[in-house]
Amino acid sequence: MIREVFQLYIDRWDFFLKLIMQHLKIAGLSILIASILGLILGVLISEYKKTSSIVLGITNFVYTIPSISLLGFLIPFSGIGNTTAIIALTIYALLPMVRNTYTGIENIDSSIIESAKGMGSTPFEILYKVKLPLATTVILSGLRNMVVMTIALAGIASFIGAGGLGIAIYRGITTNNTIMTIAGSLLIALLALIVDFIIGSIEKIIKRRWKLV
């Protein structure tokens, strides 16, 4: 069966290459938007702690909604296709970014913050010169989990008319073509592993540098 899968890759390389690019586009946009929004929300709830329970509660609740259900809920508002898939994936990706940003900042030793205040640093300077750098490894850990999850979840986008490697899986299921289904699934897993390795390597480099400082 593995031989048949690789033969399919060779015979239909242009088809799979197109799907890979579509998959990366959908997942990449979702990851970018979620990273920015998640970082901002995480910083805001760490600065205004009264809002943390509300924001984290909402993101936790949304995270429990099955992906197919969320896609179905969004279709009447944004239609079928990539837009709905990106919105849904972004919503799911927010939780790990918000939670890890908040946790990373909250776990910073309060004496470090007090020292920075004593040296006359403004709240903004404390945020971008002290809090965010010290929380970087925790934030990257959340980003790593979020990226892998988003790439994997993007496989269901084809069920609402979006592109990506989910098309190969969908075609395989609807035509009872097991080889096509496996081929699409393996490529999604491979993409997730490659990106996870890259982010993990960056995380290790940052940790080494912190140890040397």
UniProtKB/TrEMBL annotation:
GO terms for biological process: glycine betaine transport; transmembrane transport. SUPFAM superfamilies: MetI-like. Keywords: Membrane, Transmembrane, Transmembrane helix, Transport. The keyword Transmembrane helix applies. The chain crosses the membrane at residues 26-45, 65-95, 147-173, 179-199. Gene3D superfamilies: MetI-like. It holds the Pfam family BPD_transp_1. The keyword Calcium does not apply. Residues 20-199 form the ABC transmembrane type-1 domain. Belongs to the binding-protein-dependent transport system permease family. GO terms for cellular component: plasma membrane. This is Osmoprotectant transport system permease protein. It comes from the Bacteria. It is a multi-pass membrane protein. It is found in: Cell membrane; Membrane.
